[in-house]
Design a protein that fits this description.
The chain has about 220 residues and is α+β, with helices and mostly antiparallel strands. The protein is about 15% helix and about 30% strand. It has a single domain (about 1-195), classed as Jelly Rolls (Sandwich). The chain has helices at about 30-35, 165-170, 175-180, 185-200, and strands spanning about 1-5, 10, 15-20, 20-25, 45-50, 55-60, 70-75, 80-85, 95-100, 110, 115-120, 125-130, 140-145. The strands form three sheets. Strands 1-2-10-7-12-5 form a six-stranded antiparallel sheet, with no helix packed on it.
């Protein structure tokens, strides 16, 4: 797990082991995430999306607490994944960082509660998995325009963005702040402290308490 420039965001860069049958890699390990974030990821929901080239999903976020932490991986094709610090009062407020997720390097990203998330499909049939700390709650979910000029996210210039009607109508960051939609950095830090107080998982143990084993690889 390598921490990104935005506090609360990490990229997982696995060792991919190829052989005559194909390849193997570990795309999630609870103890690694726990050591990085200081707490475990309580898995409440797993999502899957398939997107044609140019599809732009986000910027999405949820009210904190409890928010919705995400662990995201592209299992087919490639996407440009973007994490945005939308926590009002954060030292890195308005900063964004992008990571290419694809089926070659097999990176994954983790973003803490309160951070904004978006991605653009760089290939057709780009397939993305999300592990989420909380289930979908429409009353607590919000969006920000991913093409907001103030954020100036550097999406690929040679790909026309394809947005849903909901994402197209999302407010700018300034409008979301004026409407009181953004999570505050203080609220997020207090929530992270509560999660850390519960402690990370024991080394080599999954959330359910089963020891990790290479037997099934």
């Amino acid at each position: 797990m390598r921490q990104l420039s935005i506090p609360g965001a990490w990229v997982q860069e696995p060792e991919v082991i190829p052989d005559g049958r194909g390849s193997f890699h570990e795309w999630f390990r609870a103890s690694d995430l726990g050591a990085a974030a200081g707490h475990s990821l309580g898995l409440a929901q797993a999502n899957f999306s398939s997107s044609r080239r140019g599809t732009l999903r986000g910027i999405h976020f949820a009210d904190v607490p409890p928010g919705q932490a995400k662990y995201v991986k592209c299992v087919r094709g490639a996407v440009l994944d973007v994490i945005v610090d939308i926590r009002a009062g954060s030292p890195t407020y308005k900063r964004w960082e992008s990571v290419r997720l694809d089926d070659t390097d097999h990176r994954a990203v983790y973003l803490a509660e309160g951070l904004g998330h978006a991605f653009m499909a760089l290939t057709d049939d780009a397939s993305v998995l999300y592990l989420c700390s909380e289930g979908y709650n429409p009353g607590r979910e919000h969006g920000i325009d991913p093409l907001d000029a103030e954020l100036a996210i550097e999406w690929p210039r040679d790909i026309a963005p394809l947005l849903s009607g909901k994402d197209s109508a999302a407010p700018s960051l300034a409008e979301a702040e004026e409407q009181g939609l953004l999570p505050s950095y203080a609220q997020c830090e207090a929530y992270y402290a509560r999660l850390r107080a519960a402690g990370p998982p024991a080394p080599g143990v999954l959330t359910g308490g089963r020891p990790l084993s290479p037997a099934g690889r």
